From TrEMBL:
GO cellular component, one term: plasma membrane
InterPro entries named among the record's database cross-references: Ig-like_dom, Ig-like_dom_sf, Ig-like_fold, Ig_sub, Ig_V-set, SIG15
Biological processes annotated in GO: regulation of actin cytoskeleton organization; regulation of bone resorption; regulation of osteoclast development
Entry keyword set: Membrane, Signal, Transmembrane, Transmembrane helix
Pfam family, one: V-set
Gene designation: Siglec15
Signal sequence region: 1-23
Name of the protein in its database record: Siglec15 protein
Segments of this protein annotated with the region Disordered: 295-318
Parts of the chain that traverse the membrane: 262-282
Biased composition (Polar residues): 295-313
Domain Ig-like: residue ranges: 40-145, 168-249
């Protein structure tokens, strides 16, 4: 009986010395991952939220607090944050605290956007990330190191997931040639949540049709095949935070052959050259006449004459210069493509 009681007592002792991983909630109801390694002579724990969300261009706070087995520790310590994976991921922030001090001197801050908010001496490693971009999305892991043996350090194993949200933005829209002189349009947009893409234009009867897109992370690309009619084609990207659109224009020359179309373009360029020569000749004649008049009349002070006109004064209110369309020869059909956002 006595041996049985001793065996039960040892079993209870082993259970108290085991490892424990517990998930709790903070005061706001957000999930907290609490990682604990406990033993009578060593107790470490870290508390981080499961996820933090913020919009692109704004700032986000990554909370992290910890406990350690020492009743009081006043020696040197280091606070570290990693990205991607624990223990091996690249460091994005690191600062050190000297013995007897509460000031953590920053030694590393990725692109200068990571800033310590907490006080490591008071068990708080929280940081703030400025000027968020979609590429900042991912997991981050906090770590603390005390000066001493290898056991005086601890790192979050699960980390906190940073989710960066953004309204849609169209980053590319273009028209590409295909076989048999058929053209197709491509539209690429980014955003979080990933946006849905839709097209409108003459080939759709001036209606709108949602197109299945190929997603690559936070970027989505959708194709509008077989542009059978000339005109304006518009791509619209939308998610829960907003929408964006951009347009491309398709105009094709239908000539008898590529040679005749080329001759037409060369003729237009020749006409422009002749007009330019005429303008230059007229200016030269005017200069000679002005020189003769200057010789026949006594000199007098006058404002210097300019050969250039003040376009801002000559242009009527609300008048805008015409857009220049880029021209490109593509086989027997020659589209003029103009991008507009």
């Amino acid at each position: 009986m006595e041996r049985s009681i001793q065996l039960l007592a040892c079993l209870a002792c082993v259970l108290q010395m085991g490892s424990l991983v517990r998930t709790t909630r903070d005061a706001l109801g957000d999930l907290l991952d609490t990682e604990v390694h406990s033993a009578p002579e060593q107790r470490w724990s870290m508390q981080v939220p499961a996820e933090v969300s913020a919009e692109a261009g704004e700032a986000a706070m990554l909370p992290c607090t910890f406990t350690h087995p020492h009743r009081h520790y006043d020696g040197p310590l280091t606070a570290i944050w990693r990205a991607g994976e624990p223990y091996a991921g690249p460091q994005v922030f690191r600062c050190t605290v000297a013995r007897g001090s509460e000031l953590c001197q920053t030694a590393l801050s990725l692109q200068g956007r990571f800033r310590l908010l907490g006080n490591p001496r008071r068990n708080d490693l929280s940081v703030r990330v400025e000027r968020l971009a979609l590429a900042d999305s991912g997991r981050y892991f906090c770590r603390v190191e005390f000066a001493g043996d290898a056991h005086d350090r601890y790192e979050s194993r699960h980390g906190v997931r940073l989710r960066v949200t953004a309204a849609p933005r169209i980053i590319n829209i273009s028209v590409l040639p295909g076989p048999a002189h058929v053209f197709r349009a491509l539209c690429t947009a980014e955003g979080e949540p990933p946006p849905t893409l839709s097209w409108s234009g003459p080939a759709l009867g001036n209606g709108t049709a949602a197109m299945p897109g190929q997603a690559h992370g936070y970027q989505v690309t959708a194709e509008l095949p077989a542009l059978t009619r000339d005109g304006r084609y518009t791509c619209t990207a939308a998610n829960s935070l907003g929408h964006a659109e951009a347009s491309v224009y398709l105009f094709r020359f239908h000539g008898a052959s590529g040679t005749s179309t080329l001759a037409l373009l060369l003729g237009a360029l020749g006409l422009k050259a002749l007009l330019l020569l005429g303008v230059m000749g007229a200016r030269a004649t005017r200069r000679r006449l002005d020189h003769l008049v200057t010789q026949d009349t006594p000199p007098r002070s006058q404002a210097q004459e300019s050969n250039y006109e003040n376009l801002n004064q000559m242009r009527p209110p609300g008048h805008q210069l015409p857009r220049v369309y880029s021209e490109e020869l593509l086989g027997h059909h020659h589209p003029i493509v103009h991008h507009e956002k």
